[in-house]
Amino acid sequence: GIAAGRLEEWIFVFAQAAGGSSQFCISVGTNIPAEYNNLQECFDGIIGPETLYKIEDSRVKESAQKSLQLHEVLSSISFNSLGAENIRGGNGRDGCNLVRTDTDGVLEGGSV
Predict the structure, then answer these.
(1) Is 111 a member of any domain?
(2) Are 25 and 15 in contact, with CB atoms under 8 Å apart?
(3) Number of alpha carbons in the 13 Å side-chain half-sphere of residue 52
(4) Is 47 in contact with 39 (CB distance < 8 Å)?
(5) Residue 37 lies in a domain
(6) Does residue 100 come out as left (phi exceeding 0), alpha (psi in the -120 to 50 range) or beta?
(7) Which domain range does residue 9 map to?
(8) Do the domain assignments include residue 26?
(9) 9 CB neighbour count, 10 Å cutoff
(10) Is 69 left (phi over 0), alpha (psi -120 to 50) or beta?
(11) Which of 11-20, 31-40, 43-52, 98-107 reaches the highest mean pLDDT?
């Protein structure tokens, strides 16, 4: 449902962030983008609704009625409401490659 769609969109955004290079933000190894079955190592426990981002649509809709500025809509979502506390770090040693960078950072040509 909605949670699956959000996960798919989230993965797509980060998988594409490095442009045409082989440096993927979600990767397997050095130059292969991660697929769904590779994400299991990135969560403590199982992947389910309780481990996905939990952004309440009502907050976004309420902010959008007041302003169409993206930064204002996004600022209405608190980090604590995202349910991200169980996502493990992508340090290259624990099998989680949600964030993979090189010296240029997460985005191609950028810096972190």
Answers:
(1) no
(2) yes
(3) 17
(4) yes
(5) yes
(6) beta
(7) 2-54
(8) yes
(9) 10
(10) beta
(11) 31-40
Check if the beta carbon of residue 33 is closer than 8 Å to that of residue 20: no
What's the residue count for the chain?
112
Nearest of 35, 36, 9, 17 to residue 102 by alpha carbon? 17
Question: Token pair for residue 96?
Answer: 């989680």
Q: For residues 11-29, give the mean pLDDT.
A: 57
Please state the three-class secondary structure of 21-52 as a single string: CCCCCCEECCCEECCHHHHHHHECCCCCHHHC
Residue 90 pLDDT? 45
Please give the structure tokens belonging to residue 112: 């972190």
pLDDT over threshold 50, residue 45 = yes
**φ, ψ (nearest 5 deg) of residue 105:** 90, -170
pTM score: 0.24
Q: What's the total number of domains in the chain?
A: 1
Would residue 102 count as lying in a domain? no
Examine the pLDDT at 79 and tell me if it is beyond 60.
no
